[in-house]
Specification:
The longest helix has 29 residues. The strands form two sheets. A three-stranded antiparallel sheet has the order 1-2-3, covered by helices on one side. The chain has a two-stranded antiparallel sheet with strand order 4-5. It contains 19 helices and five strands. The protein has about 600 residues and is mostly helical. Helices cover about 50% and strands about 0% of the residues. It folds into two domains: about 260 residues, no CATH class; about 210 residues, no CATH class. Helix 12 packs antiparallel against helix 13, helix 12 runs parallel beside helix 14 and helix 14 packs antiparallel against helix 15. The protein is globular, with a radius of gyration of 25 Å.
């Protein structure tokens, strides 16, 4: 496998990676729900300034593909592939580490197509330059994207990131560039458009991996446009397809649907595919030919194939959930009505039911990781964690909505937010320490941890309940430790660390000195006992695989409606989440709705 190190740390203002960049000139993902806005809000909540960027330090990552791909004519190109053994190794990584979680490729069909192409063009040991004709252009471009993804998620890729100067190449970038060159000025035939959709879906996934959300948004927009043109969104237009091909199209469409919503959530921008324009059976819906065919090929166990099918349906369910949340709370037309507490309560209950009703294969049970029984396959353990974190992050956003004019941060919602964010940090720590899946999940973990910081930072203000402050600071410092560990091999962790350094400094400088908290050495990783202690000796925050106890901390602050109204004091930003002052200053303009409320329970979430 490739020995290339992970996405490298880059200088401030880098124009390629954008997920954790805080450049004041950046117009990337500048919606109020974006990661950048959450980082700004967390800084503001702690009264610390965002580090400015220096445009003179910008370094673009470049890997020219022109030495590997030569255009002989508009209809014939050549592609330099790895030696057969290395090619097979990369594909095995792709099928094992990526496709089970975003199964937009059918393994059996792809391998069959590959065997039709490569032997015919003479590919073999020592003969790795192959012709790419128009017939096989979609297949060649998809192969390159699969190699790009495989190179990024390869568990054997790089054991430790070197200190500067560092390798400035993004894993998989060369293959991504090759795929774009192959498709340059290519006009697909009607029967090739679905495969080009598949390419752009896979490309969007890769770009999310490599922290290029702006480019991922563009890729998914192209995919949506092509999917509609090809009729992928309407299964009644699918004719003369084998059961395998129909299943492949169905899963491809729902992968596209999910990514459309996922990018909407990450960037705080509208989704593109409207539900009214979708007519495709979901995974749980029986097909005309019976059960769903194996998603990842016949090599997987029946149990794992079943788990993957349930997971794909979970992605669909999450997509429907986000659609409803966006339409109700975040769309431009309804924003002036944001603050409907009854909707937040009902949707919160819906998410709790979704968590409770997940199939057994998707239920997050961290105690099974501790005991060493139950789930032993890391991939089978990964599915529940991804499902759990995906639902909880949306649940937290409901209770800490940057667009809401009705404030829920002074009610029992405080306890809910603190507990959920702490438990989510706890889950990530347990998982990463148990399996050490930094290459496969490092970038994802950084994104979720930044979300948690967004929800935890407001609790550090000195006018908060002391127990809540201790819990929040403990979790923030635990996040610091985890990101420091990941930064040894993960460029994304280094970039997140750079953007968060002042928040971490503010958390470390808090004057609490509670029992067992005076020395932060307890936050350092320990194989035998990597847990954190709260006041009273209750285990909470972060725990290691060998010492798990669920966090049971809850906020103890309760306010009546009159208490709430009495605190509408704009002179003290400490009385409000920094989020409110930073992202929604006009939220203080009108509180007509709150004046109509007399029941304190109305604010309860």
């Amino acid at each position: 496998m490739s020995a290339m190190s992970s996405t490298p740390p880059t200088e401030q203002g880098d124009q390629v990676t954008d997920t954790f960049e805080m450049s004041i000139n950046s117009n990337i993902c500048n919606g109020k729900l974006s990661i950048q806005s959450k980082l700004s809000a967390a800084h503001n909540a702690l009264g610390v300034e965002v580090l400015s960027s220096d445009a003179s330090l910008v370094q673009k990552l470049s890997s020219s593909p022109t030495d590997a791909i030569h255009m002989h004519s508009r209809s014939l190109r050549t592609l330099l592939l790895p030696e057969p053994s290395r090619l097979v190794g990369f594909l095995q990584v792709f099928w094992a580490q990526h496709n089970p979680f975003f199964p937009c490729n059918n393994r059996g069909q792809f391998q069959q197509d590959l065997l039709q192409w490569l032997p015919a063009v003479g590919y073999g040991p020592g003969r790795t330059v192959v012709r790419v004709t128009p017939t096989f252009t979609p297949l060649a471009s998809n192969l390159c994207m699969m190699l790009a993804v495989a190179e990024f998620v390869d568990p054997e890729r790089g054991s430790r990131m070197s200190d500067p100067p560092v390798d400035q190449s993004i894993p998989g970038k060369l293959w991504h560039d090759k795929s774009l060159t192959i498709l340059d000025r290519f006009s697909p035939a009607c029967d090739q458009e679905v495969e080009i959709v598949r390419f752009h879906v896979l490309e969007a996934m890769y770009l999310i991996y490599t922290e290029q959300l702006r480019q991922a948004s563009k890729a998914i927009a192209v995919a949506v446009q092509l999917a509609v043109r090809a009729g992928l969104h309407d299964q009644s237009s699918w004719t003369d397809l084998t059961p395998t091909m129909a299943d492949s199209r169905r899963i491809l469409f729902w992968s596209l649907y999910y990514l459309d919503r996922r990018i909407s959530e990450k960037c705080g921008q509208p989704y593109l595919l409207r539900n009214e324009e979708v007519y495709v059976a979901e995974i749980v819906t029986p097909t005309v030919h019976g059960h769903l065919l194996p998603i990842n090929g016949d090599g997987e166990s029946v149990a794992f194939n079943t788990a993957m099918g349930h997971y794909v349906q979970h992605l669909i369910d999450w997509g429907h959930l986000w659609t409803d949340i966006w339409d109700t709370l975040f769309s431009l037309r309804v924003r002036k009505f944001v603050g409907d507490v009854s909707y937040v309560k009902s949707t919160n209950g819906q998410i709790e039911r979704m968590l409770a009703n997940l199939p057994p294969e998707l239920q997050w049970r961290p105690e099974r990781l501790k005991s060493g029984t139950g789930i032993e396959d890391e991939r089978q353990a990964r599915l529940p964690l991804l499902a759990y974190s995906r639902l909880v992050t949306v649940q937290l956003l409901l209770h800490h909505n940057p667009l809401s004019r009705l404030r829920s941060n002074i009610t029992s919602s405080l306890g809910f937010r603190l507990t959920k964010a702490t438990e989510l940090v706890q889950a990530i720590f347990i998982y990463m320490e148990t399996f050490n899946t930094y290459n496969q999940l490092g970038q994802w973990a950084c994104g979720v941890l930044v979300d948690c910081i967004y929800h935890l930072a407001p609790f550090i203000a000195t006018d908060n309940d002391e127990t809540n402050r201790r819990t929040a600071i403990t979790s923030l410092l635990s996040i610091k430790t985890l990101i420091e560990n990941m930064s040894m091999t993960q460029g994304s962790a280094r970039r997140a660390q750079r953007s968060l350094q002042r928040i971490f400094s503010a958390a470390q400088s808090c004057d609490l000195s509670p029992p067992n908290m005076g020395d932060h050495s307890s936050l350092q990783h320990s194989d035998s006992d990597a847990h954190l202690q709260m006041s009273g000796g209750t285990s909470t925050g972060i725990v290691g695989a060998g010492s798990f106890e669920a966090s049971t901390s809850t906020a103890s602050t309760h306010f009546s409606t009159s208490d709430f109204l009495s605190q509408l004091d704009l002179r003290s930003a400490n009385k409000w989440d920094g989020l409110d002052m930073m992202l929604w200053p006009s939220s203080f303009d009108t509180f007509d709705q709150t004046s109509q409320i007399s029941d304190p329970y109305y604010f309860s979430m």
